[in-house]
Amino acid sequence: MNPKYKNSYKNPKKELVSLSVYNTGFQKCEPRHQWGPGVRDHYLIHHIITGKGFYQVNGQTYEINAGDTFLIYPQTEVTYYAHSSQPWEYSWVGFQGSDAASILNATDFSPSSPVLPTSSLKDAIQAHLMGIYEASGNQFVDSVEMTGRLYCTLALFMKHSSAAGHTNTAGSYVQAAIAYISANYSYPITVEDIASYVGISRSHLFRSFEAVVRKSPKEYLTAFRIKQACHLLQHSSLSIAAIATSVGFDNGLYFSKTFHKIVGASPRDYRKIVGASPKDDRQKDPAAGSRH
User: Fold this and answer.
1) What is Dmax (Cα atoms) for the chain?
2) Are strands 43-50 and 89-96 parallel, antiparallel or unpaired?
3) Is residue 177 a contact partner of residue 209, using CB atoms and an 8 Å limit?
4) Fewer CB under 10 Å: which end of the chain, C or N?
5) Separation between Cα atoms, residue 110 and residue 101, nearest integer Å
6) pLDDT digits over 41-74, tens only?
7) Residue 24: φ, ψ to 5°
8) What does the pLDDT look like over 224-283, one tens digit per residue?
9) Residue 277, SS3?
10) What does the buried/exposed string (b/e) look like for 81-112 if buried means 16 or more CB atoms within 10 Å of the residue's CB?
11) How confident is the model at residue 154 (pLDDT cuts 50, 70, 90)?
C-alpha cells in the first residue's frame, strides 16, 4: 500500500476580486478519512486520481470513483470520506470571486449535479490542478499566476460541457452585466444602467442574477464595490473619502455604513487590521454629500 501523504497550500492574501485561489493541493487519504459535516466559505473542486470515496450533500450520497470530479458550493453543508478498502487520492483547488458563479454556471456542475464523470479528461484536469499548485507562493505575482491557471482549468470544464456552443441565457446576461460592472463600478451606475447595457428589463436581470449568483444585481454591485474598497484600503494610501469616491460612492457616510454592514468593521478599523499605512487618513472623516 502506498504511504499516505498530503501536500497543500493556503493563499493568505486572496487579493484578486474577479477570481482568487484560496487553497490548492493533493492528498492520498487513509481509509475512511473524512471531512465534515461542515460548510466552506468558497467553491472547492476535488478531482479523484485513484481509489474511491463518498460525497454527501443536500440529502444525497454519491459514490465517487477515479476520474470523477466533484464540486462543493459555498455555505452548503457537506461530508466527504474515503472508501474503507480503496481510499481515494485526489487533487483540489478552492476559489472564490465575482467571476466564479457565472463561470461555473457555464459548466455541467450545478447544485443538483455536483459530481461529473470526467474520466476522459482525467489527465488534463490533473495536469491543470497540479499547475495551480506548482504556481503557489506568497507573492502577488504568484496569486496572479495561480488565478490565471485556475481560469484555464475552469475553461476546460466549460469547453467539455453539454451546453458548449449553446447560449446559456441567464448565464450570458449575468456575464455581460458583470463585465459592465467591472468596467464601470467607479461611476454612479444603477441597476437600470446595467439592465439597459445588457438589453433586458430590470426584473429579467434580477431573475438572472438570483438564478446564477444567488444575489440581486444591487447586492452584487455593492459587494463588488466594497471588495474593491478593501483592496484599496490595504494597498493604497488614499484617504477613506477618496476610496469611497473611487469605488462609486458619492456619500462618505453611506459608504462607511455599507462597508461596516458587509465587512463587519469600519473602513478605518479595517485598514488598521490589515496593516496598511495611509498617509492622509488624518483628514476629516467623510460624511458629506448626497445619498448614493
Assistant:
1) 68
2) antiparallel
3) yes
4) N
5) 10
6) 999 999 999 999 999 999 999 999 999 999 999 9
7) -160, 155
8) 999 999 999 998 999 999 999 999 999 999 999 999 999 999 999 999 998 755 544 433
9) coil
10) bbbeeebbbbbbbbbbbbbbbbbbbbbbbeee
11) very high
Element (H, E) at 52: strand 52-57
Three-state secondary structure string covering 78-138: EEEEECCCCECEEEEEEEECCCHHHHHHCCCCECCECEEECHHHHHHHHHHHHHHHHCCCC
Joined together, the cell numbers standing for residue 74 give: 459555498
> What CA–CA distance (Å, rounded) separates 58 from 79?
10
Tell me: cis bond preceding 37? Omega within 30 of 0 counts.
yes
Q: How far apart are CA 253 and CA 267, in angstroms?
A: 11
Q: Is 53 helix (H, G, I), strand (E, B) or coil?
A: strand
Give the tens place of pLDDT for each residue, 180-228.
998 899 999 999 999 999 888 999 999 999 988 889 999 999 999 999 9
Contacts of 232 (CB under 8 A, 6+ apart): 238, 243, 246, 247
Burial of 249 (0-12, 13-18, 19+ CB in 10 A): buried
